[in-house]
Every structure is written in structure tokens, then in C-alpha cells.
Amino acid sequence: MSDLDPEVRVLAPLYSSALELLRERLDDIVEDILRNLKESIPVFAQVPAQYDSTLREVALAACNYLLRLLEEESVAEGDIKWGDFRGLELEEILHSFQVGSEVAWRWIKRTWSEAGYPLEETLKAAELLWRFYFSVTDSVAREFIRQRQESADRFNDLLNRIRTVREGEELLRLITMGACDVLGYRRAVLFLVEREMMTPVSAADREDQAWGKSILDEEKKYPLSPMADNLVTRAFYEPSIKVSKAEDGERVAFLTPSREAHFALVPVKPEGSPSGLLYVETEPLGKFIRKREVELLSAYAEAAGMALENLRLYRELETKRKIMDNLMSRVNTAHEEERARIARELHDSVAQSLLKIIYAAGFALDFLKENPPLAVDEINEVQQRAKDCLGELRAIMSNLRPTSLDILGLKETVLRYAEQFEEEYAISVSVDLEGLESLPPSAELPVFRILQEELTNVRKHSNAGSVHIRSQLSQGDFVLAVEDDGVGFDPHMLEAEQESGKQLGLMAIRERVELLGGDMRIDSTPGMGTRITVRIPMVGGGEG
Ligand SMILES: Nc1ncnc2c1ncn2[C@@H]1O[C@H](COP(=O)(O)OP(=O)(O)OP(=O)(O)O)[C@@H](O)[C@H]1O
Ligand SMILES: [Mg+2]
After folding, report:
1. Does the beta carbon of 491 lie inside 6 Å of ligand 1?
2. How confident is the model at residue 159 (pLDDT cuts 50, 70, 90)?
3. Which of 280-290 are b and which e, b meaning 16 or more Cβ less than 10 Å from the residue's Cβ?
4. Domain finish residue from 289, 306, 340
5. pLDDT band at 89 (very low <50, low <70, confident <90, very high)
6. Cβ pair 352, 389 in contact under 8 A
7. At the N or C end, where does the chain have fewer CB atoms within 10 A?
8. The pLDDT of residue 386 is above 60
């Protein structure tokens, strides 16, 4: 700030003693400013008492600045640190300097008149105060905008990193670390919610690295029932950001916020429906979580949600690819095995029979002239062997494609298969078949194979007493459901197994159905039986 104009220099002889008086009253002035701030600006009225010391420091710094101005008529700019404005709005900051200046003016007026200054001198002091006010608010506003810009830059930079990170662990870590380092929270925990269970997947504390680790190491989960009435549940199911101040000993899920800290619960919802919850907590006596912060948190949660969703899709794709690889290699070996088996069967049966036919035909030729009756025997032999050979060939072929499908049709084939299954494995089978005849021929074999795999699973895994097979046309789709009353299983456990390449029957069913443009659904609970439903769309609406 520049030197003051010469005409406003205040050089009256009583000046220094008046300033001394003002300096002695500094504590009272500061308290007066504080009281006035709280009375006239709502945000300061809500500040907890412990926060007063910070306000006091700022007020004191401003008063000292003013005193030096009165004393030296010039103060270098940048002398004063105005602190961190992140929690306040510019309007509130300017307003508070206005209130402070008004209070200071009252005290100056009083002191000057007590010191016996004439009115003219008081007006000069007023002009100094006026300059003080403009100089301070100007530098504060600049500093405010600089800080805002800086935090906006840091925030954007964080969002970019979140959007581009490819590695899952890194993303989870970034979400909580970013909430601490960039958004300025003391603690952050990210929960993922699956089947109404909240599991912490990343946690950070700005000052205490061990804290985050301990939260994860404890491996606690928190049940989220839509029926329960607590802040966590409401944040997730409503879903909306919930902000609160921690009561003594309050629990948020299984976290204990520090006393007097403020915290927010932010639903993380990729594609609309929440799949996670971000918990953030301020310093113990820290700032409020105000409207602006809530808006930032909401933008933050959106970016985090999108990144998590991308990551999930990416992982899903990876898993699918692994499963497909397994399936393909199994299909390949199955093909090889099948070829070897057919070659063996052809060799063992058809080739042997043909050899015998060739010999018998040779004998018949030899006997034809000298011993016709023997030749007739051999020809009969040829005929018999040829019949056997044909039978063997048919058997091999029907294994390749159940002959009955072509001869009897799918419905009859299923009925016979079910009957045979019931006899062989003593599991009672009931059937209720409709709509089979509407299936296009290309879908018949896949549907039969699906049924075979499902019944094989019932036999191998279910320990069921009965199984019900039902098919029908519904809303233009062909629907086949196989339901057993056996031990059931947890379908969520399937994926890991499929990835390991051990269990592929159900996966193969899904692949077959998807090839036909349909989908598969598994309904099973341990102890409650299993129902597998496949739905295949009928092109051109098969319902008629
Ligand atoms: N009807 C059922 N009742 C109980 N558990 C079942 C049933 N069907 C499937 N399962 C469970 O699901 C798992 C996966 O079945 P899937 O058909 O994919 O593999 P699998 O039968 O074990 O092996 P394969 O690859 O030879 O079919 C089974 O291992 C079993 O635990
Ligand atoms: Mg199976």
C-alpha cells in the first residue's frame, strides 16, 4: 500500500497517547468485534465456542494492522495472513470486515474524544479507517479468489485422476485420499454395498495413517436394512447426502466420529442406483459442512461413482473373457475327445462289421458254383452283418444328434428323456410342456442340451427328491424352467468358480441362450432348492 497523502497525516501532539489508549483497549475491542460478528452474521453465530480463538486471531491481526496504519501512515501489503477462507463465502468475509471496521470506528471516536481531539482530527482518523477498509477488503477478496481458484484447480485435477486411473486398488485409495487432501476432510471411508451389506474398501485419515489401515483390517461389515431408521440407511436408500454433527459417542455404521466433528454420508450411485457410500469427517472442532461443500461432495461422488462403474464393467469384461477362454478350451478338448471317441467306435464296431461282411461276401463268391447252399448261408451272414452295422452306425449318429429329435420331435424326446431319468436316478420328474413346437428347428438341439445339463446338475448336486420341468410361451418368448427341491446353492459364489475354470455347465447354458438372443436366470438359496429359467425370444412372435 502506498504512503498516505500528506494532508491526511495526523500529527497532533496528543496523537501518540491516544494511540496508546487504543492499544490498551485492544482486548476489549477484539471481544466487541467478536460479539458483533456473532450477532450480525449467521455463520459466526453457529461457530462452536472452541472456534472463537481463530476468529479472535483474525480480528486481532486486523486491529493491529489498523493501529500500525494510524501510527505509521503506511503499511506494507502482504504483512498479514488472513488465514484459510475455504469455509466462508466472500460475502461473509466482506461483511465481517465491515462489522469489524464499524466497531473499530466506535472505539476510535470514543478514545479520540476522551483524548480531547477536535472534530477535525477525528474526521482524519475516519478517512484512515476508510482507507484501511478498502485496502483490506481488496486484498482479502483477491486472496479469497486465489484460494478458490487454487482449490478448484486441485479439485479438477483430482477428478481427472479419478476418471483416468485404471487400477482398482488405486482408484479406491484415490477416492478417500482425495477427500482428505483436496477436499480438506480429516477422515474418509468408502463403503461398497452389496446385498445390503456395507463393506469398507478404502479408508484414510489425514493425520493418522494407521487409522485407515485398521478400519480395513478389522474386516467389519454393516448390514443396511431398508427398514432400519438411521442416518446411514437413509443416506443410502433415499438417496441423498446427509450432514450431521457427531454427538458424544455417536456411531455411524461401525465408525465413531470424533467428538464435535461434523460428518457427511454421500451416496455413490453409478447409473442412478447407489452402490456405495462415502463417509467424510471434519477435524474434531472443524468447519461446518456447508452448502458449497455439499455441492462439491455431490460432484465428487458422481465422478467416483462413474469411475467405479467403469472399473466394474472393465472387470466384468475381464471375468467374462476368462470364462470364455475356459469354455473355448473345454469346447476344444471336448471336440478332440469326441472325435477320438467316434473314431474308436467306428473302428470297434462299424469297421469290424464291414471286415466281416467283406470276408463273408468273398466266401459266398467262392461257394457259389461248388456249394450253392453254403453260398446262401454266407449271403445271409452278409445281410445280417450289414443290418448290425447299420444299427451301430445309427447308434453312433444318434449320440451325435438324438435321432428322436428328428423322428419324434422335441416334446416326445424330452418326455422320454425325463422318464428315463426318473427310472435311472429315482428322482421323481413332473413335466408340463407347452410351446415346444413353436421353437425354430435350430433351437431344438440347444434347448435339449440345456435340459440335459440342468438335469445332470440336479442329479449331481441337488440331492433333490423331485424335479419339475415346465415350458411355455410367454409374451413372445419361449420360457423353460427346471425347478428342484434339493439343497440349493448360492449363485453369487459361481463367478469365482467359473473363473477358475472348474464349473462351466451353467455358463455354457448361458452362452447357448445368449446365442439365441435370450437370457438365463438362476433362483437358488442354500436349503431352498433351485430354479433355472431360460427365456428365448421367438423371432416374429411365436405365440400364434
Ligand atoms: N440343481 C442344483 N442344485 C444344487 N446346486 C447346483 C445345482 N445346479 C448347479 N449347482 C451348483 O452350481 C455349481 C455350478 O454348476 P455347473 O453346472 O456350472 O458346474 P458343475 O456341474 O459343477 O460342473 P460342469 O462344468 O461339469 O457342469 C455346481 O457345482 C453346484 O455347486
Ligand atoms: Mg453342471
Report:
1. no
2. very high
3. bbbbebbbbbb
4. 289
5. confident
6. no
7. C
8. yes
